[in-house]
Design a protein that fits this description.
Blueprint: E1 4-7, E2 14-17, H1 19-52, H2 56-71, H3 73-93, H4 118-136, H5 139-152, H6 167-179, H7 185-216, H8 252-262, H9 268-276, H10 284-303, E3 313-316, E4 319-322, H11 326-336, H12 346-364, H13 371-390, H14 401-413, H15 424-435, H16 447-462, H17 466-496, H18 506-525, H19 530-546, H20 549-552, H21 556-576, H22 585-599, H23 609-619, H24 633-637, H25 642-648, H26 657-663, H27 684-689, E5 710-715, E6 718-727, E7 733-737, E8 743-747, H28 748-756, E9 760-764, H29 768-785
Antiparallel strand pairs: 1-2, 3-4, 5-6, 5-9, 6-7, 7-8
Helix pairs in contact: 1-2, 1-3, 1-7, 2-7, 3-6, 4-6, 4-7, 4-29, 5-7, 6-7, 8-12, 9-12, 10-11, 12-13, 12-29, 14-16, 15-16, 17-18, 17-26, 18-19, 18-21, 19-21, 21-22, 21-23
């Protein structure tokens, strides 16, 4: 059994219906009693802690905390179902099911640490501990529910992030609703700790009830399986180069790296301290202090009783003054005695080294990167460690030259499936050349990285290819199409609201609101066509009038004179957008049928009028003859549905043929659906059905990739890598650019279809460096909530 979807809501996102939607409603109904049980258990735990507390202030504080929870009980129980429902819907709508609530305990990000205060950090730690304990308390029931939910959503294999009932979603909702209660941060911390003690038990009950509900609906569990690429063959997403340089992920290096990550004892507070410590400032501050020292020594010279000679010691106010040359003295002071510069504690130094090592380890373990790129990152580690001693800020400053170097090289490398791909050497050779100057002993500041990055940028800019020029041309074409489509939407609304449009058949309204609105928009945006734009607007009245046989039949003489000019004007208008005349054949055929019906009204048989009409139509390059039509011609002419019109217009977005060529536009007919792996159970029926693309019903609610994401999609029976470089403001058009600059564009509907058919897969939505640093932060969080594991 699979769910179906319908579009609803003001944001245009699809909401689930069917069995899965019923399951979500069931979870919402169970939320209130579940919260009641949690609060009852938490109150018991807090009261027990109060009774056991020997210190009066702590005892009173726990009593106040328990009383506050009792006062908020009804509020929390009433609000939790709605908050949980919102969290589940958000999880369903998101392609990665990422919880985005401001109070949610989503995985800790590295760039958040500098912005968080102590209370926020403690809240994240408490929530993470609660979720970890809850997950451990319901693992078996969660596994069963994962398989059933994925099956209900149309997936043949289990995908863990597709279960909106999983503990992190429920925990995020719980954290959010607690923040709504009138309380102090200290009280909410105690609440969280107490609620976490019984959350696993309550989730176990919830999961069992939801699983029983799905089984009663005849849902069969999805299977746990390790899948390859969408085509049933190994995808190039995880394919690296076959080359090896003897370090990185090769041999014992990988084991040593994994051991180094596992043995790290870095905590969140240590990481925050290192990133925010004042003593990690660029060496430019040292240069400023050096100038101050020189000025001070100049003053000492003036105040001294004797001339300051080389190597002579003088007495000044009872203090010894070493009269070494100014530069040497300043250098010594800048290296050892300056407050705020290079004055790190041993612990700070160890933490900084640990962070850099873990980041490098994570990058070297990232299978999305080619082996040669991972080897390059590994070789860069000594220089990065040396830089961290004087400027740890490069890890959090995305504009720092060292960070730019890492970000850009690793990101651009994702555009190549292997190191033998066309253009890879042109991309990577400048990187290798520039990196030769990054030596640890030269890292007194970030200057070597700045020079290396400038060298790489210069080399890349000289390699600007014709394909990259094509990418810029494609963007211009899409911007033009977007502007025209927005204006066409406005025109279409105005035309279909006219009084004379009310009686017109639907196929005429669709034509006027679709292709003809595009013609009018194009003419209005083109200065040379402004005069023609008025003619194109005037013909709308003729289209509406002549397409209603009852009213056109009242003035057949006018209709006969009108038809040739009307058809000629319509064809001329379509031509200015580059549309083929054949694309409008269906419209012209239907229009001629209603015109003939009007001309034949009241006539028992064909009269001399018909050849005259046919002759005039021939002069306008229309049909060569008017064929006999059935009596239900008008009914046939109005049989087209609005959905068919939408499909023909690429979900409301239309591109001219030249714009399609310039932007590498993909329409539905160009999609090559991947073939699923054939089952191995010998069932011929199942084997035959395996050739049909698997299409999960909830595909329509998948969010598009973020701008800057690297993806891999199937085009012309081959996998292509590209980066999402542009999306229209209304999210209707998307442009992807390959490593060589070659563009590919598509509509939102086409993008959704490709994701549903698994012929478009996201490689990464963040830079791999961001991911590596986030992994460091998450490792620090795990160490913080499990201190015993790092002891």
């Amino acid at each position: 059994m699979q769910e179906t979807h319908s579009y609803s809501g003001t944001d245009g996102a699809a909401l689930p219906t069917g069995i899965f939607a019923q399951c979500m409603r069931q979870a919402t109904l169970l939320a209130r009693p579940m919260m009641g049980e949690l609060l009852l258990k938490a109150d018991t735990i807090i009261r027990a802690r109060q009774s056991a507390e020997t210190e009066l202030p702590q005892r009173m504080a726990l009593g106040d905390t328990a009383d506050a929870l009792s006062r908020c009980k009804d509020l929390l129980m009433d609000r939790f179902p709605a908050v949980l429902d919102k969290a589940m819907v958000q999880a369903v709508r998101s392609a990665s099911a990422t919880v985005t609530s401001p109070c949610a305990a989503a995985p800790l990000r590295f760039d958040q640490l500098e912005l968080m205060d102590d209370t926020q950090v403690q809240s994240r730690i408490d929530t993470a501990r609660m979720q970890q304990a809850a997950t451990q308390g319901c693992e078996r029931e969660l596994g069963e529910l994962d398989a059933l939910v994925c099956a209900a959503r149309g997936f043949t294999t289990v995908q863990l992030d597709r279960n909106p009932f999983r503990p992190e979603v429920v925990g995020a909702a719980l954290t959010e609703v607690l923040a709504m209660a009138p309380s102090t941060s200290e009280q909410r911390t105690v609440w969280m700790q107490s609620l976490g003690a019984s959350l696993g038990e309550q989730l176990r009950k919830l999961y069992k009830e939801l699983a029983d509900f799905l089984r009663k609906q005849q849902v069969q569990s999805a299977t746990y399986a390790v899948t390859g690429s969408a085509s049933g063959a190994p995808s190039s997403v995880n394919a690296g180069s076959a080359s090896s340089s003897g370090y990185g992920r090769n041999g014992t290096g990988a084991t040593q790296r994994n051991a180094r990550i596992d043995s790290s004892r870095l905590t969140v507070n240590q990481l925050r301290h290192v990133l925010g410590a004042d003593h990690f400032q660029p060496m430019t501050q040292a240069q400023e202090v050096e100038q101050d020292v020189q000025a001070l020594e100049a003053l000492l010279q003036q105040l001294g009783n004797q001339a300051i000679g080389s190597g002579v010691v003088h007495q000044l106010d009872g203090q010894e003054v070493d009269s070494q040359p100014h530069t040497s003295r300043a250098h010594a002071m800048s290296q050892h005695d300056l407050p705020g510069v290079n004055n790190k504690t041993d612990e700070d130094q160890a933490v900084a080294q640990d962070v850099v090592c873990m980041m490098v380890d994570n990058l070297c373990d990232d299978q999305r990167l080619l082996q040669v790129v991972r080897d390059w990152v590994n070789g860069l580690e000594p220089a990065l460690l040396a830089l961290a001693e004087v400027d740890i800020g490069f890890l959090s400053d995305t504009r720092h030259p060292a960070r730019l170097l890492l970000d850009e090289v690793t990101a651009r490398s994702l555009g190549f499936a292997n190191d033998a791909a066309a253009g890879f050497n042109n991309f990577f050779d400048p990187v290798l050349v520039a990196s030769t100057g990054l030596k640890p002993h030269a890292m007194s500041d970030a200057k070597p990285f700045a020079q290396a990055w400038q060298s790489i940028e210069l080399a890349w800019s000289k390699q600007k290819s014709a394909a990259q020029m094509q990418s810029e041309q494609a963007l211009q074409a899409l911007l033009q199409a977007e502007q025209r489509n927005l204006l066409a939407d406005k025109i279409a609304l105005e035309l279909t609201r006219r009084d004379d449009a009310r009686q017109a058949p639907i196929f005429v309204k669709q034509f006027v609101a679709g292709p003809w609105a595009q013609v009018l928009a194009h003419a209005r945006l083109t200065p040379a066509l402004l005069q023609s734009a008025q003619d194109y607007l005037n013909v709308v009245a003729d289209l509406f009038w002549s397409s209603v046989p009852e009213q056109a039949a009242k003035n057949k003489t006018h209709l006969v004179r009108l038809i040739p000019n009307l058809l000629a004007t319509v064809r001329a208008g379509l031509a200015i957008t580059g549309s083929s005349v054949h694309e409008a054949d269906a419209f012209f055929s239907q229009l001629m049928q209603v015109h003939e019906a009007a001309l034949r009204a009241g006539l028992p048989r064909r009269s001399a009028v018909m050849p005259h009409v046919v002759g005039n139509c021939a002069k306008a390059n229309t049909v060569a003859a008017v064929i006999e039509t059935p009596s239900n011609a008008v009914d046939v002419a109005t049989a087209a549905t609005e959905q068919e019109a939408v499909n023909r217009l690429h979900d409301g977005v239309w591109l001219a043929p030249q714009e399609e060529r310039d932007s590498g536009f993909l329409d539905d007919s160009q999609f090559a659906a991947p073939i699923q792996p054939a089952p191995d159970n010998g069932d011929m029926t199942a084997a035959t059905s395996a050739l049909v693309p698997h299409k999960p019903n909830d595909s329509l609610i998948m969010e598009p990739p973020k701008l800057g994401s690297w993806v891999e999609f199937l085009s012309n029976e081959r996998w292509v890598r590209a980066q999402l470089t542009w999306a229209s403001p209304h999210g209707t058009l998307f442009m992807f650019t390959g490593a060589a600059g070659n563009p590919t564009s598509m509509t939102r509907r086409a993008l959704d279809k490709m994701q549903a058919r698994q012929s478009l897969r996201i490689i990464t939505q963040d830079s791999v460096v961001v991911g590596a640093l986030n992994a460091v932060a998450q490792k620090a969080m795990r160490n913080t909530i499990n201190p015993a594991a790092t002891a």
